[in-house]
Amino acid sequence: MKKETLSILVCPACRNKLTAKPEEENETEIISGNLYCAECGIYYPIENKIANMLPPELRDEF
Length: 62
Description:
This protein is mainly beta. Helices cover 0% and strands 37% of the residues.
C-alpha cells in the first residue's frame, strides 16, 4: 500500500482516521503490517502491499 494513501483512508466501521503499524516497509510503501483505528480498536491487515478493509467478521469468507 502506498504510504501517501494513508492520508485519505478512514475506518469503514466508524469513519475515523487510521494509523499504520508497519511490519515491513520501504520508503514509499507498506508491504505488511496493520492499519489501526484508535476509535473502535479494529485492525485491518496489510499483506503483499494490499490493505484488507473488510470488517473482521467477513475476512475469512473471502
